[in-house]
Design brief:
The complex is a heterodimer of chains A (about 625) and B (about 525). Chain A has about 625 residues and is mainly α. Chain A has helices at about 5-20, 25-50, 80-105, 110-130, 135-155, 160-190, 200-210, 235-250, 260-265, 270-280, 280-290, 295, 300-320, 325-345, 350-380, 390-395, 395-410, 415-430, 435-460, 465-470, 475-490, 500-505, 520-540, 555, 560-610, 615-635; strands at about 60-65, 70-75. Chain A is globular, with a radius of gyration of 31 Å. In chain B, a hairpin with a 7-residue loop joins β1 and β2. Chain B is mainly alpha-helical. Classes of the chains: A mainly alpha (about 625), B mainly alpha (about 525).
Chain lengths: ~625, ~525
């Protein structure tokens, strides 16, 4: 038994213990859950410093190749490369802080035990995704995080809205996983493996990389190059595989058009929003893309699609955020927008930039959500920013930490978000100017809506009685805030240190690193100018306001995408299934099957007429039959 | 030489005799089922997994007439039937354990349950086509009686519909099996499955291609009706909805697998050319199971009919796995048979539990029950997750293997298209299963499920009796069967290799399996 397996075993044991014994015993549930999270963090530190041996693998399913079928070997193991180590640190580190914060936040809830059980099963699944050595192992845990997300969104299950949001999240993810599974199958069929170990992927890359992969956007060649087939697999299938794998990411990381579940997921308790729907789980999609990046690089068209969807999500979500009034929903749309950045970075050939942004985002977005939770806690479950106001003086620690998170998010120089966003824009600039400009505009929007939130909620007069007498949260909640704030400031400096270089080697498939791009002078200043103007515009527009001076219906209604889905997809499906059900009941079962039965009964009824019980009739029919038989036997031929 | 398999058959028989003689019905039946469960676990553990093939064999002549192939009482199991034996044992135990103590005509009721189980068990351990068929027929009779006597809703109609439909299926199947044996040259005719298998393995073309093309569809329709292959499925949902939960558990969970087992054991190996030619039809029909039955499931407004349709829909996976006819696909199908047996038994049992305790099974009338029945909610969630193919529960492992097998197999049309249908099936299942959880257990709870003391109405002086409200499966005997089924599903889900190392070698011994590369 290797010590590394404890990473998975501890949270699982905590879950089972809570499920069986502690679901009505908050104290022990907290000890089990937070204890397992702390131990996992310690083990992660050991792993990061290479003090834990690589654990042995074991065969989960193993079939040798037969006939035309490739072999299917699913070896469960653990991967400890820099990419996994970095992600593991985020998951267990931020996870632990949020566990601790939850002790304070969930204290009053009678179902607190169940909450910590959900957190533990989430930690189990999320850790599993990070250390997976193959896509099926990853899919196993991938569905696991989906399940824990479902359970935690629906935590307050007596509320209809929570139950509906939980279902929506699960079904959206399932729909995306439909594509993911097909992508995995295509990968297996072409490469004969499901492994994502870097050496395996490098091998796949070299066997299939075309000498000159052309770009559609780059105008160097037309669509016909897609069908070129030189040595490796057909680019069409490679592209389909990339799109399939990306579909998984689109569900988990809530890319357009699957994004609708994430804002609704805010129905869950705030620590869940911070941990699952901001810092870690939604980033799993990006992590997965980075993990399989050598495969994505096989299809330029696929990469461009990824970049395009990322870009679209980034700007679309930021636009919607401008007109939202629920503090958690604003942050949720902001998360969508930042995830869009990360996905765009992957599509622009910069997985390292995506992981860098993922890391910094995990810190400051977890911070923002926890601080928002602290605000909500202080105002007794009030989430509408227009019912807040003047909180800066009353809950200063929350306000300060929220401010730091905000500055990091909008990309204030020297804070973490600045560096990671800059790197993404640099990658975007070198891929296509469109991505760069849209990305910069999104930076403007981000500055605008975050400043709007801050000005309305923390400055000006208190707009409701509850906002006049808020109370600062206990230290079990504020200490995690301070720690996260610290990391939100310093995490970006690793670009000067070792951290990001380390990430780089993961993708050095050709033996040489992808060079770090830089923005040429003028273009480097544009985002900064836009951010400053966003802050100023929002400040002057919203300072001392009590209603929203902007009224952009289409943004407030989220581009009507949710309505469209409800009407056309959900409604249409309901009509279709009712029609089918009617057909089955009345045509197939009613007409054909029971029809056959009634015909049989009918024939019986007709034949019954001959069963008169009258001996003469029988004798007559018998002789008639005999006569017919004799006639045919003697005279018919 | 007597074999432990004989004990599997004698234990329920002894219990039936004991019950008739006046032993307490439920306890006797429960003990017999538990004995069988322990025994089947022992058989699993003891099975020489590495080489595969038949084991625990017992073979003695039964009827020998001139002109008719000899009928032998031939028992034996291999890696394909042994997991199904285990499934039969565990579902029987659960079905008996969830049955109420005070059911009317209880001696009869438990005897019929035991007979059903005995029939299913007999079909899975028989290596003679005669007994294979007869044991299944034997199990159908108590099924009809259980529906007709202890059923709900319009039980008379359901019972008759199921009877006539399944009898017709059996009859067609019988015709097919007789045709199959008569197609062999006279000296080689036999009912013995092992002899047939080795004979066909040595002479693959002994039944002419044209004959196979005629016989195979007869066998397919026969088996298809019994298992609910689209469009022969319409007996199942109303039948299961009316059946007492224990009968639905045993039939949907176990007995129905007889037809799929028969296809693996007899239908496809003996008539392989016919199978290959009819493959496009099989694929089209199973797509009907996924999409047609799947969409209809979404439209259902009552819990038992929804589960009935979903169990029809999930037959699509099993058919697809078998239709691939390669090691991965068949192993996956066998694994999924066990997994689906567990999850279907859970769902039917829980559906009965909910209907019984809430006095209601329409989605529009239920809601918020998790507040009063948290354990029931946990169990139902587990069962739903299993049915949806959430990893960690057994169904996922089986479905996954079927995805892989069908994606790589050389199938007519666009092979991967059917994989796509199958994967999409998991989306459909998620839609209706999650909605069921939501409408039954989440949201606000109707006031009638709150417990209330007896009261006298002030104005009319009428007494309102006390009500316990919605109750939970709170005591040990109430929840043990569900916990047992969930544990089995979890064990297989996390460690599918436990069963696969038994299934896999035997599957690779089947005729016409693509050879190792």
């Amino acid at each position: 038994m290797d010590i590394a397996w404890l990473l998975l075993l501890l949270p699982l044991v905590a879950t089972v213990a809570i499920l069986l014994r502690f679901h009505r015993d908050p104290l022990n549930a907290i000890i089990a859950s937070v204890g397992s999270a702390s131990l996992c963090f310690i083990i992660t530190l050991l792993v990061v410093f290479d003090w834990v041996p690589q654990p042995a693998t074991w065969n989960w399913i193993s079939f040798p190749a037969s006939g035309s079928i490739p072999g299917l070997t699913i070896e469960v193991g653990m991967i400890f490369d820099p990419l996994a180590k970095g992600m593991l640190l985020i998951v267990t580190g931020v996870g632990l802080l949020i566990h601790i914060y939850s002790i304070g936040y969930m204290k009053a809830d009678p179902s607190c035990g169940r909450f910590f059980g959900g957190l533990s099963i989430f930690m189990f699944s999320m850790t599993g995704i990070v250390i997976s050595t193959n896509l099926i192992e990853m899919f196993f845990f991938w569905e696991g995080v989906g399940l824990s997300s479902y359970l935690l969104i629906g935590f307050w299950y007596t509320r209809d809205s929570a139950a509906i949001a939980a279902n929506k999240a699960f079904v959206c993810n399932r729909l995306a996983d439909f594509g993911f599974m097909l992508g995995i199958l295509l990968f297996w069929k072409m490469m004969g493996t499901v492994s994502v170990l870097p050496e395996k992927l490098a091998q796949c890359y070299h066997q299939n990389a075309l000498p000159a992969m052309h770009s559609i956007l780059g105008n160097q060649a037309g669509l016909h190059t897609l069908f070129a087939h030189e040595g490796g697999h057909s680019p069409v299938f490679l592209t389909l595989m990339v799109l399939g794998l990306f579909a998984g990411c689109m569900g988990k990381s809530a890319m357009f058009p699957f994004h609708v579940w994430l804002p609704d997921a805010m129905e869950g308790p705030t620590p869940v929003s911070a941990l699952i729907h901001a810092a870690t789980m939604v980033a799993a999609g990006v992590y997965m893309l980075c993990r399989v990046y050598p495969l994505l690089a096989l299809s330029n068209l696929g990469l461009e699609f990824i970049a395009f969807i990322g870009c679209l999500t980034a700007v679309g979500a930021a636009l919607i955020a401008v007109q939202q009034n629920d503090i958690k929903r604003i942050l949720a749309y902001s998360t969508l927008s930042q995830l869009g950045y990360m996905v765009m970075a992957v599509g622009c050939g910069g997985p390292a930039a995506a992981m860098f942004h993922l890391t910094t985002h995990a810190f400051y977005k977890a911070l923002l959500f926890l601080a928002a939770g602290s605000v909500i806690h202080a105002l007794h479950e009030e989430q509408d920013i227009w019912k807040m106001g003047g909180l800066f003086k009353k809950i200063p620690l929350t306000a300060w930490t929220f401010g730091i998170g905000l500055l990091a998010l909008i990309g204030c120089p020297l804070l973490s978000g600045f560096y990671s966003k800059d790197l993404i824009l640099a990658f975007a600039f070198h891929t296509h100017p469109l991505f760069y400009w849209v990305g910069s505009f999104t930076a403007f929007l981000t500055a605008f809506y975050m400043t709007r939130l801050y000005v309305i909620a923390f400055f000006g007069p208190a707009r409701t009685p509850a906002a006049e007498h808020p109370h600062e949260s206990p230290s079990v909640m504020t200490v995690p805030l301070v720690i996260l704030a610290t990391f939100s400031v310093i995490a970006g400096w690793s670009i000067w240190g070792y951290g990001i270089k380390d990430y780089y080697h993961t993708w050095a498939v050709n033996g040489q690193d992808i060079p770090l791009p830089e923005l040429p002078g003028f273009y480097g200043f544009v985002p900064l100018v836009l951010v400053v103007s966003g802050v100023l515009a929002a400040y002057y527009l919203y300072c001392d306001r009590s209603t929203d001076p902007l009224d952009i219906r289409i943004l407030a209604q989220k581009f009507y995408i949710d309505d469209f889905y409800d009407r056309s997809l959900v409604g249409g499906q309901q009509h279709a299934v009712n029609l089918l059900s009617w057909l089955d009941n009345w045509v197939l079962d009613g007409f054909i099957i029971r029809g056959a039965a009634y015909v049989t009964v009918g024939i019986g009824e007709i034949l019954r007429l001959f069963q008169t019980g009258n001996l003469q009739t029988y004798a007559f029919l018998f002789s008639l039959g005999g006569a017919v038989v004799i006639y045919f036997a003697l005279f018919a031929h | 030489m007597p074999s432990p398999l004989l004990v599997l058959l004698l234990v329920p028989l002894a219990a039936i005799i004991a019950i008739i003689a006046g032993a307490p019905a439920k306890r006797t039946a429960g003990i017999a089922a538990l004995l069988n469960l322990v025994l089947s676990l022992g058989l699993l553990y003891n099975y020489p997994a590495a080489q595969g093939g038949y084991c625990y064999i017992m073979d003695c002549p039964w009827v020998t007439l001139s002109g008719v192939p000899p009928i032998r009482f031939h028992l034996g199991v291999d890696g394909i039937s042994l997991p199904l034996v285990f499934l039969t044992a565990i579902v029987t135990f659960a079905a008996i354990a969830i049955s109420p103590n005070n059911i009317r005509r209880s001696a009869e009721y438990y005897c019929y349950l035991l007979l059903m189980s005995l029939g299913a068990m007999g079909a899975f351990v028989s290596l003679d086509i005669f007994f294979f068929f007869i044991f299944h027929e034997f199990a159908l009779i108590p099924t009809f009686l259980l529906i007709g006597i202890w059923g709900t809703q319009n039980r008379q109609f359901a019972s008759f519909q199921v009877t006539i439909y399944l009898m017709a299926g059996s009859l067609i199947l019988l015709a097919g099996l007789i045709a199959l044996i008569m197609a062999l040259p006279a000296p080689n005719r036999t009912f013995d499955i092992t002899a047939l298998q080795s004979y066909i393995g040595r002479h693959p073309n002994v039944i002419s291609h044209q004959a196979q093309d005629v016989i195979f569809p007869i066998v397919l329709v026969g088996f298809g009706i019994l298992v609910g292959l689209f469009p022969f499925h319409s007996w199942a949902p109303p039948g299961y909805a009316s059946a007492p939960p224990a009968a639905a558990m045993l039939h949907a969970g176990v007995l129905k697998k007889f037809a799929l087992y028969g296809l693996i054991r007899i239908g496809i190996p003996m008539l392989h050319d016919g199978f290959t030619d009819w493959l496009p039809v099989i694929l089209t029909l199973l797509a009907g199971n996924f999409l047609y039955a799947g969409f209809i499931t979404i439209a259902q407004k009552e819990l038992p009919t929804m589960i009935g349709f979903s169990s029809i829909m999930h037959m699509g996976y099993l058919f697809l796995g078998i239709a691939c006819w390669n090691t991965i696909g068949i192993s996956g199908a066998v694994l999924l048979m066990v997994a689906h047996g567990l999850s279907a038994a859970l769902l039917f049992g829980l559906s009965g539990e909910i209907t019984h305790r809430a006095g209601e099974n329409r989605f529009t009338e239920l809601g918020g029950l998790a507040q009063r029945a948290p354990l029931l909610a946990v169990f139902f969630s587990f069962a739903s997750m299993a049915s949806m193919g959430v990893p960690g529960l057994a169904n996922f492992a089986g479905e996954l293997m079927i995805f892989f097998a069908s994606f790589a197999a050389v199938l007519p049309f666009l092979g991967p298209l059917f994989t796509a249908f199958a994967v999409y099936g998991t989306v459909i299942t998620a839609i209706f299963q999650l909605r069921a959880i939501k409408t039954i257990f989440y949201g606000p709870m109707p006031a009638r499920y709150e417990p209330r003391p007896a009261a006298v109405l002030a104005n009319t002086r009428e007494t309102v009796p006390a009500s316990a409200g919605m109750t939970d499966t709170a005591t040990l005997p109430e929840y043990t069967p569900y916990v047992l089924l969930i544990l089995a599903s979890l064990a297989i889900g996390f460690m599918p290799f436990l069963l696969l190392h038994i299934i896999q070698p035997s599957v690779s011994l089947l005729p016409f399996i693509p050879p190792l590369r």
